[in-house]
């Protein structure tokens, strides 16, 4: 028996699941607890797949939405006195205080909101699919959301998706795409004492670095949100020995692109930027961007419900997130969740419990019939 009591509210459930360590690849204990906690609810169909858990209502509603979150965290931090950032530590009270610990913001607070709603919303106004997945904080190939979408597509047929990653309860639309490309410059090796006999590949690479230095990244509005692009060198390799003219140098560049480009456009752009240089350009990996889709009726209604009365406006998502996977399925999605992304992965990670409580209330009201 896991002892996870989902009726205690999202703040206390956050603490309870932070206290069950779930570093990527080691989510079994938490997945067991989540599965056991959800199984008793007759309004949910629950499925276990690896260390991921899926649950859904099936009330025949006209629309279906997905609420998704990852169960894993980055490794537990240990400070110089040997103190670990798990179990969680409460400062203040459960309504307005701060909860410290690994995964509080990224993203057990969001997962707690999902769990509490799954347990207590027996009659939502739309059918809801809850996705709790593993291995988000590691290489993309291990991310179980990709696997689940491939192997259980029927669980991902939906009209809208909310990924409860930390966004300070502000709706973040879409996401940037990302592409890495390797530029390889070749020369001729020679003894550096007779350098005129060689051709220096590192010097040739300088031309590419100058283009990057002069590069003016775009700011572009897509469906009402401003996205900022960036093209940067993120690695350089080259050199043979201290007395050898190097015959090869490569620069790894990373292009973060706005959702008005697809991957083919992104690659074309990279090739244009470096056109005319004596370099071989190879795309090593990429992931598509996602359009915000906030003009779609369901998304607009969601924004209205969860951001009513707030000064803040929805913003663009900087970074690649799993909403792009939903976009790839034709399911528009947003990032919206309690917690601060700037605190994610830090040893002093924490979450503002007021945000957790408000997030749960607002998503609940969005999914409830007007009373
Ligand atoms: Zn996360």
Write a structural description:
The protein is α+β, with helices and mostly antiparallel strands and 371 residues long. The chain is built from nine helices and 19 strands. An eight-stranded mixed β-sheet has the order 1-2-6-3-7-18-8-17, with helices on both faces. A hairpin with a 6-residue loop joins strand 4 and strand 5. The chain is elongated and about 80 Å long. The two termini are 36 Å apart. Zinc ion binds next to helix 3. It comes from Catenulispora subtropica. It is an enzyme of class 3 (hydrolase). Its EC number is 3.5.1.18. This is Succinyl-diaminopimelate desuccinylase. Pfam families: M20_dimer (PF07687), Peptidase_M20 (PF01546).
SSE series: HHEEEEEHEHEEEEHEEEEEHEHEHEEH
Low-confidence stretches: none
Helix content bin: 25-40%
> Can you give the mean pLDDT?
95
- Strand order across the largest sheet: 1-2-6-3-7-18-8-17
Number of strands: 19
Strand content: 25-35%
**Overall spatial form:** elongated
Number of helices: 9
Biggest sheet architecture? 8 strands, mixed
Distance between the termini: 36 Å
What small-molecule ligands were found? zinc ion
Return Rg in Å: 24 Å
- Structural class by helix and strand composition: alpha+beta
